[in-house]
Design goal:
Distance between the termini: 24 Å
Number of strands: 12
Oligomer: single chain
Structural class: alpha/beta
Largest sheet: 6 strands, mixed
């Protein structure tokens, strides 16, 4: 099992990122725009909240680098950290100070170069905060602008450029690109976003931005949940402990993505139960979203 986190843990929520970093599972993480929400440039006097997040994540943060998992024969290549989508670079001072990145071309080159020394027998999966351009411009497309009339492509051009270069100049197998940022629920109650896109080259693009990812039961559900917890726990404490949490699961078989599902798990104290499962993709070509 390998955990992917595509960022936006909160508005520079260091405590939550520390909890993620402490998880005793193999993982790959990239920070998003909300993880650099207030910090426009690194502080020279003290560690700011962006520095603290990067420090606690250590090697698990894959921004502009590659993380190899030899036992899985898998390499994760990170996109541009702090991305906000679109044609402009977000938090340019942070990227310049830490990574020496000044423009989209330099960013694309950095992503591309991070992948070049991938072991020959490894699959390559790209993990970014936002997806690439070129996946559609309708408001419900996987990276489509849903907040403006007429939509538009809000993907990252540097990520698209890096993927294109990798396909043209290497023989790496790239079955999957994972990202978030573009929320499943569209603005102004315009419906739901397509969370899967399959390229002409069979690369699968997966958006995992289900927001909110953690839900608590509504008032009318609380009575039912109250009876399912330990009777020694006070009702008020029990209710506060009940959550439903979303996870996107990817199954890879023989070097290809076999199945992708959106799952919702109920958590009551230390007990977990699978509540819902929605299959987004099957290897026979069926895609429901």
């Amino acid at each position: 099992m390998l955990l992917f986190y595509s960022g936006d843990f909160g508005n520079e929520n260091v405590e939550l990122v520390q909890n993620v970093a402490a998880l005793d599972f193999p993982k790959a993480v990239i920070l998003g725009n909300h993880d650099s929400w207030s910090t426009q440039q690194f502080s020279g006097k003290r560690k700011d909240r962006v520095q603290l997040q990067l420090e606690c994540l250590g090697q698990d943060h894959v921004g502009y680098k590659r993380l190899d998992f030899p036992l899985l024969k898998l390499s994760i290549v990170g996109g541009r950290p702090f991305s906000c989508g679109g044609q402009q670079i977000f938090r340019k001072r942070l990227l310049s100070a830490r990574y020496g990145i000044e423009d989209m071309d330099a960013s694309a080159k950095r992503i591309y170069e991070a992948a070049l020394r991938t072991p020959e027998d490894h699959l390559v999966i790209l993990l970014a905060h936002n997806g690439p351009t070129g996946l559609g411009s309708e408001l419900n497309d996987i990276c489509g602008k849903d907040w403006v009339f007429g939509g538009g492509d809000h993907g990252d051009p540097d990520l698209a450029q890096a993927i294109s270069q990798l396909k043209e100049t290497t023989t790496f197998s790239i079955p999957l690109v994972v990202f978030g940022h573009m929320h499943k629920e569209l603005a102004y109650r315009n419906g739901l976003r397509k969370m899967i896109a399959v390229g002409a080259d069979n690369i699968i693009y997966l958006n995992g931005a289900i927001v909110p990812r953690v839900k608590r039961p509504r008032n009318e559900q609380q009575t039912a949940y109250r009876h399912s917890v330990d009777s020694e726990t006070s009702p008020q404490a029990s209710i506060s402990d009940v959550t439903k949490r979303a996870f996107t699961l990817v199954e890879i078989l023989d070097g290809q993505v076999d199945r992708i599902s959106e799952t919702w798990v109920s958590v009551v104290g230390n007990e977990t139960t699978l509540e819902e499962e929605h299959v987004l993709f099957k290897s026979n070509g069926q895609s429901s979203l």
